[in-house]
Amino acid sequence: MGTSDDDVAAPFWAAVRDRGVLAMQRCLACAHIRYPVSAVCPRCLHDGYEWQDLSGRGTVLSSVTFHRAYRPEWAGLVPYDVLFVELDEGPRMFSAPAPDHRAGFAVGQRVRVVPAELLPGEVVPCFERAESEVAG
Length: 136
Ligand SMILES: [Zn+2]
What we know:
By secondary structure, the protein is mainly β. The protein is built from one helix and eight strands, in the order αββββββββ. Helix content is 11%, strand content 38%.
């Protein structure tokens, strides 16, 4: 039985779904935080890693409104916003505002992760504004 990317990524999704946190692979050789999930470290090619909980905090690099669905199953969500967030630990990820935080994501906005069921049965890491924080 081989190991698919889905198998490797299972702890990422379980952390979001069960604990509401972001967990990512931390390279055992160089400590690089891998994202997206990968079989080997993109920086040093070592295959050893451990899962590490992240702070879930980051800064918005860009915010774009989609008027067409990127995936067919998202058609009911149009128009929707897509955020590009740089996490405090370094990785950059595309995500979405939490359902009750649709507007006001300027570049530089401090955010924190919050799990949201955007589609039935599909809990994904979204972001809400972290009002009390100032971008550094
Ligand atoms: Zn590495």
